[in-house]
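In this supplementary section we document a worked example of the pipeline. Step one takes a protein sequence of length 281 as its only input; no multiple sequence alignment statistics are reported here. Step two produces a three-dimensional model, which step three serialises into C-alpha cells for compact storage. The input and output of this example are shown verbatim.
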Amino acid sequence: MADKLPQEMESDSWAGEMGDKWNTYLDQFEGMIAPVGAAAIAHADFKPGERVIDIGCGGGATTFDIARLVIDGHITGLDLSQTLVDSANSRLAASGLGNVDFVCADAATAIMNGYDVLFSRFGVMFFEDPHAAFKNMHSFLNDDGRLSFVCWGPPTEQPWVGQLMAIAAKYVELPPPVPNAPGPFAFGDPDYLRDILSSAGFKDIELTKWTGNQQLGGPGSTPESAARFVMDALFLGDAMAEASEEDRAQAHAETVELLKGFVVDDNVEMQGCAWLVRARR
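The serialised model returned by step three reads:
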C-alpha cells in the first residue's frame, strides 16, 4: 500500500527529498503553475516601497517578479529547502536585482518582522500544525500589514488528479484520503482555511476562486514528456513507489494515452482550481 496520497505531505519533506525533486524539475514546475502564479501576484496588488516576504519561494520566480513591482521596497524569499535557496541565489546573481534576499528557514517557527505583505504561491499548505504556523507568520507583519497567497482548491475540482490516481489504483492499494491533511490540497475546504486564518488573528478574510488551464510539465510538453513528469516528479510516481517495474511501465503507457486527450496547441493542458486569499493583520 502506498503510504500517502498526494494531499498528504508534511512541510519537513521539503527540506530534503521534495525540495531536491522540485529543484531538479524547476523549469517544469514553474512553467506549469505560471498562470495561477501571475494571477496571485496581480491579486496581491503590490505597491512600490513595500517590504514583502515570499513564503515557500522555491527557485525565486515569484520573488523576482514581485521585486520588480515594489521597486524601491524589498522582498525576502523564504524556503525550507537549502537546495532551492541555493538555486534562487544563483538566479539572483544573474538578475541584476538589488532589493532581494533569500533565507532558508521554517516559516512555522522563524522569527521575522517588519513586513507589509506576506505572500505565497502554493507554499503554505504543508505545515503539520497550520494553526500554529499561521499564528507565527502573523507576527511577520507590521500592524497594518496584509496577507495574500494562493493555494489549491478542492481536489474534486482538479479532475486530472483523480484520473491519474485512478490509474495508480489499478496497480497499488491506495489509502483512504485524510481530510485537511498537510499537502497540496490541505486548504481545499474554505471553512477550514478561514478557521485557520481567523484563529491566527487575521481579519477581513477574502477567498476568490481561480480556475484556468495549466500546462502539465510546462510549456511545450507532449503526452510522453508530461507523463514522464507526473511519474518522476509528481504524485503518480510516489503512489506507485512499491509497484513492479512492469506495472510502472504499464501505468506510464496508460498515462500517455490519457494525456493525449488534453493536448491544446502543442501543450498538455489540464484545468486547475485555486483559492486566491487575502486578509488583513
